[in-house]
Design goal:
By secondary structure, the chain is α/β, with parallel strands linked by helices. It has three domains: 96 residues, no CATH class; 75 residues, no CATH class; 344 residues, Aldolase class I (TIM Barrel). Helices cover 39% and strands 12% of the residues. The strands form six sheets. It has an eight-stranded parallel β-sheet. The chain has a three-stranded antiparallel β-sheet with strand order 5-18-19. Strand 10, helix 11 and strand 11 form a beta-alpha-beta unit. The chain is globular, with a radius of gyration of 37 Å. The N and C termini lie far apart (121 Å). The N terminus is likely disordered.
């Protein structure tokens, strides 16, 4: 088949006989010698131009291909950067690379979108910065959103992060993974800085005991004492933590031989699943043991306290991070399951009252603790508090003397302790730090001649072996850790605990987010962190010449007063002698001792 255009017989044979160009220069020559009538013929456009396209694409730099605009051909059409002529069915489809018109359309759409955002920003009335700086003002909120991550990963130094610095987080992560957690080249801390504390080693260290020492909790009125580890899982509720986090902590406690405090949120199935030793904590909401009107249910308590895994029961008076306001579980975390366990409405903020219904005086407090011990079948019973007034502590001590019984233990929670949700004013400005609260409780019991009947636990930023030894010197018999245990199960200190959006599944009730936390793996990490940390504490005590924690002395902990002076805790603070408050109270304690009454938590006289 052939067609005539002018004087040329235009056929397939003719097209095929045309020389194949090898450069853009030859294409230009062919184009200039081809008549317009021939160039416009579809067969010429469909056959000859394809061969030209291959040469044009070859001459396009590789870095331009796929993003350069279409190239116009000498015949009036255009060639895309891939060599296909626009509108031609041959070669690659023209939709493989956006055409110029598509790019213009996208740009116009983007501009329209920005215009809509700008109009919204100018008209909205909530954010001043957006009214003055539409569109670009959103950068401020974006940067605020990523500020914690930028601060933690790129700004803070190894030793000055808060609440926990990078050094502490790293040592927990490494020990949880079974890594030694050692460091090279020496300390990065300023050892001459005021406030720096250090332990006093001995010139004659002693061998480490084969097994870490343990503490027997249970006074003379307790018939089923419990052997407590030097480090345990501090109070964290199901609800504040996810089900998988509770499972991992409890399984770690079961395999590692230490106790797991349930927190005040109730005794959940996840606390019971792996058989770890439990300290069942009862708060002002009496969750898991409450009547319909929110009062304490003795029958429920007796039944659940009899579980074999429940080794001790604890009454929460206050918490270090938010003393005086009770507990708060945000509405976002009150799922149907949590509502059933706590016996509260689903989807509403769950607030534990600030005060208890079961007592209003120190005497009633001590009597209720004794009742808890009786209902549990003789298991150790005690209470937890963040110390506020020293008079309150002394009033409790006087109540113990009056009633004739004591709690088996007292847990002192420092104001530096953590929480899932609390007002900033309470976190930062209410409550006594652990150092002073611990020494207050210890000295009050010693001065009243009751210290040998009551074990003292300490909680508040305990994460390393030196933290354990330091608290033992200050008056504790054992320690509890919450956030360090959270690090062991994967916490990255995102500080989103109250939002239910924890990125690692530790403090969320989202099933999708909880999936990130693999119980089997994280339970091993909890066990390994506990084991390594207690081992380091024992090693430190051996270096100090001590095998039994009871032999530690305030002389073995020193504090820098200035860059040129340091003193031991024995020199800095007053340490009462056994029974001293009963015979001849020192002047510094006499006023508070006189103001304290077993019948009220209010001071009864003016203190000096």
């Amino acid at each position: 088949m052939s067609l005539s255009v002018g004087s040329i017989d235009f056929s397939r044979e003719w097209v095929s006989s045309q020389p194949q160009p090898t450069s853009t220069a030859q294409i230009s020559t062919q184009a200039s010698t081809t008549s317009p009538a021939v160039a416009a013929h579809p067969r010429f456009r469909g056959c000859v131009v394809r061969r030209w396209s291959a040469v044009l694409v070859k001459d396009i730099p590789a870095s331009w291909r796929g993003r350069a605009p279409a190239h116009h051909t000498p015949l009036g059409g255009s060639l895309t950067p891939t060599g296909a002529r626009t509108g031609d069915r041959g070669g690659l489809a023209s939709t493989d690379v956006p055409s110029l018109s598509s790019a213009v359309s996208a740009a116009l759409a983007g501009a329209a979108g920005l215009a809509v955002v700008a109009a919204h920003d100018l008209l909205q009335r909530k954010h001043s910065i957006l009214r003055n700086y539409p569109v670009i003002g959103h950068a401020r909120f974006l940067l605020e959103g990523v500020r914690p991550e930028l601060q933690q990963y790129f700004v803070e130094r190894n030793w000055d992060g808060r609440p926990f610095d990078r050094d502490i987080r790293s040592i927990v992560y490494e020990r949880a993974k079974g890594i030694a957690g050692e460091q090279a080249f020496g300390t990065e801390r300023d050892v001459n800085e005021p406030g720096y504390e250090y332990l006093v080693h001995s010139s004659l260290p002693v061998p480490e005991p084969e097994q870490p020492p343990r503490v027997t909790v249970g006074g003379p009125d307790c018939t089923r004492p419990y052997s407590m580890s030097l480090l345990n899982v501090s109070a964290m509720s199901f609800g504040a933590l996810s089900a998988n986090a509770i499972r991992a902590l409890n399984q770690g406690a079961a395999t590692g031989g230490f106790a797991h405090d349930t927190g005040e949120g109730g005794l959940s199935p996840y606390h019971l699943e792996h058989g770890g030793d439990l300290v069942w904590e009862i708060g002002t909401g009496y969750f898991s043991t409450r009547t319909k009107d929110g009062d304490f249910d003795a029958a429920q308590f007796r039944e659940k306290a009899s579980y074999d895994v429940v080794k001790m029961t604890s009454l929460k008076l206050s918490q270090g991070a938010k003393p005086g306001i009770g507990g708060v579980l945000p509405a976002a975390k009150v799922s149907q399951e949590i509502a059933q366990i706590r016996e509260v409405p689903q989807g509403e903020k769950c607030v534990s009252p600030s005060t208890h219904r079961v007592f209003t005086t120190p005497v009633q407090l001590i009597e209720f603790v004794a009742r808890m011990r009786e209902l549990s079948g003789g298991k150790p019973a005690g209470f937890k508090l963040c110390v506020g007034s020293r008079v309150d502590v002394l009033a409790m001590v006087k109540a113990m003397l009056e009633v004739g019984t004591t709690p088996d233990f007292i847990i002192v929670d420092g104001s530096e302790g953590g929480t899932g949700a609390a007002p900033l004013e309470f976190e930062d400005h209410v409550g006594m730090p652990l150092t002073f609260g611990l020494m207050t409780v210890h000295n009050a019991l010693v001065g009243a001649g009751l210290r040998d009947r009551v074990r003292v636990g300490a909680s508040g930023k305990v994460a390393a072996g030196n933290d354990i030894v330091k608290r033992l010197i200050q008056g504790a018999d054992y320690t509890n850790a919450a956030r360090a245990m959270m690090f062991a199960v994967g916490c990255i200190q995102a500080q989103r605990c109250h939002t239910d959006t924890c990125p690692v599944g530790v403090t969320t009730q989202s099933a999708r987010r909880q999936r990130a936390l693999v119980v089997g793996d994280k339970s091993v990490r909890v066990k390994q962190f506990h084991e390594a940390t207690v081992a380091e504490a024992v090693k430190l005590m051996a270096a100090m010449g001590v095998r039994d924690p009871a032999d530690l002395s305030p002389h073995q902990l020193r504090l820098n007063i200035s860059p040129h002076e340091n003193r031991s805790y024995a020199e800095l603070y007053e340490w009462l002698e056994p029974g001293e408050l009963l015979t001849d109270p020192p002047e510094s304690w006499a006023g508070d001792w006189a103001a304290a009454s077993a019948d009220t938590f209010r001071p009864t006289s003016r203190r000096t």
